Amino acid sequence: MASTSRVFTRALRTAAPSVRNAAPRTARFAAPQVFQQARRGYSTGGEEYKEKYPGNPKGMIYGAGALVATAAVYGVYLLNPELFGQQAKPKGPFVPKFEDYQKVYDAVAKRLADEDDYDDGSYGPVLVRLAWHASGTYDALTGTGGSNGATMRFAPEGDHGANAGLKAARDFLEPVKEQFPWITYSDLWILSGVCAIQEMQGPKIPYRPGRTDRDVSFCTPDGRLPDASKDRSHIRAIFGRMGFDDREMVALSGAHALGRCHTDRSGYDGPWTFSPTTLTNDYFKLLLEEKWQWKKWNGPKQYEDVKTKSLMMLPTDMEIIKDKTFRKHAERYAKDNEVFFREFSDAVAKLFELGVPFQTEEKWTFKSSFD
User: Domains in the chain, ordered, with CATH?
Assistant: First the structure.
């Protein structure tokens, strides 16, 4: 483009004198004289055509033609960059599809594989906890809370005691948010929870996007998440407020197969299972098969296994096997991991969608790194 413009400019400069020196006449009479001179030049046959005027009007014409041709090619490039080996620019507003969300999933999965300097070598459990706590604030009666909003970004909710330590999960996801700025924090947090469960060899969790990020005015009051020191009535009150029945409550408790407690966060200490970065039905097996006793220490009341004293259970965990209805479901899950996976997947998918005004019924299942 630049070289053609220079040719055109030089042509104009060389042609300019003939315009200034030519006798005044109207354009109507000047044009035929040029054509007549041209015809006389061609009619000589052997004579080389000579310009009557100083300058170079033919150069001007050639330069103009080259400029027009180059402009035409550039116009084609702008409209169809893929013809020149470039990526086509999207037309209209960007509307992410399944493939775009799969790329986000893959980015989270890659970070889980690469960043192994967290508890037991994985950020997976804390990502599940982030998605769980972002969703578990839902109140079916008032329609407030839930996974729509990502209001834990703000101090009132982020500083709730139950959310202690979750800044690590939010910070972990910031590079992914920067890589995919179009995804909302709300959708990203839930998608990362789905990813973490599947990457820790858990079941497939159906997912659909549509969550929006809200401001600080939508922060929920403290006290909507479970208190580990309470009994079965508290479990039913908390989960019942969200719309879960006893079976779903026990299924969701199976998430305690993952991760561990920290004294500087919840006050409790230790993992629930021997494989805290792999989701299995071991949580239920250990609850039912191991012998448990109160741990003798200066922290809050918690249980430890008699045999190794390396595992822990919370008071709310023990309520699962003390209550007859709860225990019935715990026994089913302890006997059959597939049954646990199926019902856990259903309950988690329901949890992750609480409070979201979705615009579509379509749900997606992401490919994991194991597929």
Answer: 2-84 (no CATH), 98-352 (1.10.520.10)
